């Protein structure tokens, strides 16, 4: 068994990382354009054509398989194809395949409004030009984007109407790599609205990138590697690989173990681990939690309105109807919904025992 896993690690893990890194590189696009008629560039063309997101997803499947094998893997979940997995697949197709007009309908017009506003091109309020170099602009943009993501995620768990949209992501009763795409266009549209102003303040870098002959070009390489690896890690965080990343996972990059705790049904961890990429924000704002037995924690919702029927009709109903029904029931409560307790929304009353358990878990961090 150990020998088999060792072989998988040697023959699958490095190509998987290379796959995601290549697919994220603009150099690949250039190579494919230059040598598009060469037969030996067919695979390279395929990788570049599939896009960075799909390549990172494929890489994550291969990495998870190399680490844990078939049993318990996302590939096994795809093979068994139960109700929760079917919802993951439908959500992945809806969220990733291009269908602009359907997106407008599914987002209740929000994505159309954003697209229309974007075409007007109002005067930029970005302050990126006040930073003297590309490295500073890129670093600050990454940090701000990460911080905004943290607070939006935290609001999604605090405001009932937003939780009604976000709970679909948490309804997966078994994590798999495809769960990373378990979302709706309506939630995506609301998320985009919440990001518009904060990210406009410090948008993408406007300074010229360092040339390859410049010593500062190493910053471009670090930036590219960070973007590619965090893209893979976003998928791995929804896998069943029980990885903690050691001190890196405790202080720098969110690990699969840390994010599984966030998806846990245990009341002790309801209000924890909101970061997507950098552990920094959970550490600063006091929402970091750890658990050595994270692999044994159940995930999903205690009172789950989804995954009720694995028939094709039932899965379509859950995605295209139940998600909107849940949001409508919450939104129509108006201001009263703001007074609802998070534990009640998750389906289990929060008890003094669970609160003390949460405190003990936080106090034992290290």
Kindly describe this structure.
There is one protein chain. The radius of gyration is 21 Å and the shape is globular. Helix 1 crosses helix 11, helix 3 crosses helix 11 and helix 9 packs antiparallel against helix 15. It has 17 helices and no strands. It has one domain. The chain is mainly alpha-helical.
Could you write a compact summary of the structure shown?
This protein has 366 residues and is mainly α. It has helices at residues 2-24, 26-34, 42-68, 74-80, 83-96, 100-106, 110-120, 134-156, 160-170, 185-201, 217-236, 246-251, 256-263, 280-284, 312-331, 342-346, 352-363. The chain has one domain (99-363).
List the helices and strands and how they pair.
Blueprint: H1 2-24, H2 26-34, H3 42-68, H4 74-80, H5 83-96, H6 100-106, H7 110-120, H8 134-156, H9 160-170, H10 185-201, H11 217-236, H12 246-251, H13 256-263, H14 280-284, H15 312-331, H16 342-346, H17 352-363
Measured distance between first and last alpha carbons: 33 Å
Q: Estimate the strand proportion.
A: under 5%
Mean pLDDT: 80
Total number of beta strands: 0
Main sheet overview: none
- What is the count of structural domains? 1
| Helix-residue proportion | 55-70%
Shape: globular
Radius of gyration computed on alpha carbons: 21 Å
SSE pattern:
HHHHHHHHHHHHHHHHH
Structural class: mainly alpha
Query: What count of helical segments does DSSP give?
Result: 17
Low-confidence stretches: 34-49, 341-366
Features:
366 residues; mainly alpha; 17 helices; disordered C terminus
């Amino acid at each position: 068994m150990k020998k088999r896993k060792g072989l998988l690690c040697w023959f699958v893990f490095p190509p998987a990382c290379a796959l995601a890194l290549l697919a994220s590189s603009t150099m690949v696009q250039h190579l494919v354009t230059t040598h598009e008629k060469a037969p030996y560039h067919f695979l390279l063309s395929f990788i570049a054509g599939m896009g960075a997101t799909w390549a990172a997803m494929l890489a994550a499947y291969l990495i998870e398989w190399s680490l844990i094998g078939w049993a318990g893997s996302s590939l096994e979940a795809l093979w068994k194809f139960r109700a929760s997995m079917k919802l993951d697949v439908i959500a992945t197709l809806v969220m990733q395949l291009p269908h602009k007009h359907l997106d407008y309908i599914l987002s209740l017009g929000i994505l159309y409004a954003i697209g229309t506003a974007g075409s007007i091109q109002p005067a930029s309020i970005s302050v990126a030009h006040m930073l003297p170099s590309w490295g500073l602009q890129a670093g600050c943009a990454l940090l701000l984007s990460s911080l905004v993501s943290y607070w939006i995620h935290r609001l999604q768990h605090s405001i009932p109407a937003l939780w009604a949209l976000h709970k679909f992501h948490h309804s997966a009763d078994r994590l798999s790599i495809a769960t990373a795409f378990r979302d709706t266009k309506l939630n995506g549209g609301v998320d985009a609205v919440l990001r518009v102003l904060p990210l406009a303040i410090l948008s993408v870098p406007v300074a010229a990138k360092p040339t390859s002959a410049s010593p500062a070009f190493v910053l471009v390489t670090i930036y590219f590697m960070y973007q590619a690896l965090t893209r893979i890690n976003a998928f791995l965080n929804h896998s069943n690989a029980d990885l903690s990343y050691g001190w890196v996972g405790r202080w720098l990059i969110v690990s699969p173990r840390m994010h599984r705790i966030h998806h846990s049904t245990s009341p002790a961890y309801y209000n924890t681990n909101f970061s997507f990429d950098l552990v920094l924000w959970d550490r600063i704002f006091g929402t970091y939690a750890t658990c050595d037995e994270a692999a044994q924690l159940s995930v999903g919702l205690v009172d789950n309105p989804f995954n009720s029927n694995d028939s094709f009709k039932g899965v379509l109903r859950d995605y295209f109807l139940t998600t909107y029904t849940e949001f409508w029931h919450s939104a129509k409560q108006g201001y009263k919904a703001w007074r609802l307790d998070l534990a009640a929304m998750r389906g289990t009353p929060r008890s003094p025992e669970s609160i003390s358990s949460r405190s003990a878990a936080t106090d034992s961090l290290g």
